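Before a computer can learn anything about folding, someone has to put a protein's shape into writing. The outcome of that step, for a single protein, is printed below:
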Amino acid sequence: MAIINSIEQLRETVRVNKDAPFANFVMFLNDARDHFLLHYLGSKLIDKLESVDSSGTTDEDAKYIKILPMARRVLGPYAVMLSTDELSINTGDSGHTVTKTEKLAPASDAKIAKAANSLLERSWKNLEFLLEYLDTNISSFPEWKESKYYQNCRTKYFPSAAVFQDAGLIDIEYSRLTFEKLRQLIIRIEESEVTDFITDDIEKFIIDSTDENKQKAASLLKKVRAYIGSKVGELHTSQNTRVQRSRHNNPEYKAIIRPLYKDESDNNPNYYTTQALYWQEQIISMLPELGFGNTSGKLEWSNEGKKIFSAIT
């Protein structure tokens, strides 16, 4: 069995002709399962969904039966999106042709592209809903913990998308998929830029602080998280980054962070840039009072031109 086993089940998730041969979609459903859904759900949870008896009455069956429609709403639109280009043409001895009758004509490329984008967007939104449900009910789905997504859905300083939004001060609408898309960038900043002024000793202080230092450690952690969030916002919304992303039209999740700009024109119009510098200065300024040396010099603003000077001590 599979998550979607008939044209009727497929039609519950996406608009297709009821007379369309289900066999036409099987290969795309398989590809969508292996290349897309497997990463987020894991093989063990997918195996459960594919083997569950939808008429079962046990509590064990019930929890999988409950999320089966959610998984279909993710898989169906994505699979049909994958099929859009190939099913819009016929391939045979005459090469590539299209079907045209007196009553029907092929859809334009523009309409096909819009339909594919709509299917992709719905699939991502449905996946977000499914991941939220699994996360909320994690004790009921231990198999999900073995998925690649679950095993890598956190970073050193951010255990979840919610913490990234609230502590990183970046509006991602609490999206797990946006956090997943940004995760490698977050890790790169944590492991390179942050380590320039957060040594192993300071990191240990943040993570393993004693009761008497809990408040100070929490204050430092707050600043570190705000700095990382600002750097992510700066890099993700930079002009060059947005141009590079626009050149590719792959069926991938597009993480959205809205750029923030000051009204006045200056050398650093992106507000996230000035915020990153502000939080870096806050971190470095706090280190001496915690008993740590100033590892990379305190950053100071000049009064004119808003340029940065580094005072090495």
About this structure: Residues 225 and 246 are 29 Å apart (CA to CA). Residues 59-87 form the longest helix (29 residues). The two ends are 68 Å apart (CA to CA). The first strand starts at residue 90 and ends at 92.
